[in-house]
Design brief:
Oligomer: single chain
Radius of gyration: 30 Å
Helix content: 25-40%
Shape: elongated
Mean pLDDT: 84
Number of strands: 15
């Protein structure tokens, strides 16, 4: 028991050190992000000024070459037409260049990010569990997510005894599009660690599955965040973009059982990390 106590204290100290480090680095990133935003704003202003100067220069050249202007009067035997053609080609080239730059900037601004920050992951408490009336392999759960009313979640967790689900905390994906599962509308998804049993690696139905356990002091509604991916989640994941399908392969538990995305832990800010109790180096689904 003493060894277990010291082991637990060491893990808690490591988590605390990691949390302090992430807070310091987050502050540093916020400062750098503000500086980058200012630099981008300054560059946009500079670009606008240059474009305005080019427009003014082109307008001046047009006036000088217009019929009746002093510059358009040619000496006997000279031909002013080639100069006007060159000016026209130059102006057309400038307009084309501006259009291409505008399209390029718009494409960069509109390109959506594809990382875990688009997922709305929250801590929920299962407050009710019942068997699905039309599917023997499914549970229907009522989950408190800190919202005015619990959400209904359909999950294939019938191998876990019903009594073990009641009242426990879990990590849920909350911005999936609601879907009807054999007549019951499911509005979120429970995340679990999963690993095949040693005697049957090909049978997903026989896999070992564990809930991702939030920190002990987490409460329903707490957000799960990722230090290196600070973006805001989508209001609702678009099935057309297949966001969940593209992010899923990068979700797994590490050698300590900590749930991660590309090596960055599932963190409830100020409270700790989410873990699988016994599954290490396993997938999350």
């Amino acid at each position: 028991m003493i060894m277990e106590y010291f082991t637990t204290q060491v893990l808690l100290l490591k988590d605390k050190e990691l949390l302090q480090k992430t807070v310091r680095e987050e502050k540093k990133l916020l400062v750098e992000n503000a500086k980058l935003k200012k630099d981008i704003s300054d560059l946009k202003i500079l670009l606008t000024e240059k474009q305005q100067k080019k427009k003014a220069k082109a307008a001046t050249a047009s006036k000088l070459t217009a019929p009746g202007s002093t510059a358009s009067l040619s000496a006997p035997g000279t031909n002013p037409k080639p100069g006007r053609e060159r000016d026209g080609r130059r102006r057309r080239g400038e307009r084309k260049g501006r259009r291409e730059r505008t399209k390029s900037e718009s494409a960069l601004e509109e390109e959506p990010r594809m990382d875990v920050s688009r997922l709305d992951l929250r801590i929920g408490r299962i407050v009710g569990v019942r068997y699905h009336p039309l599917a023997g392999a499914l549970y229907v759960q009522e989950v408190d997510l800190g919202e005015p009313a619990p959400r209904t979640v359909v999950s294939a967790l019938r191998h876990i005894p019903k009594e073990q689900l009641q009242g426990r905390l879990a990590v849920l994906l909350c911005n999936v599009r609601p879907c009807r599962v054999k007549g019951v509308v499911s509005t979120a998804m429970v995340l679990c660690g999963s690993a095949p049993n040693a005697h049957d690696n090909d049978n997903d139905d026989d896999a070992q599955v564990e809930f991702l356990e939030p920190p002990t002091n987490a409460v329903p509604g707490d957000r799960v965040t990722f230090y290196d991916y600070p973006g805001e989640p989508d209001r609702e994941l678009s099935p057309r973009e297949k966001v969940w399908e593209q992010i899923l392969p990068d979700l797994q538990t590490d050698s300590r059982g900590v749930a991660t995305y590309r090596g960055v832990g599932f963190e409830v800010r100020g409270k700790g990390l989410c873990r699988a109790p016994t599954l290490t180096n396993s997938i999350i689904k």
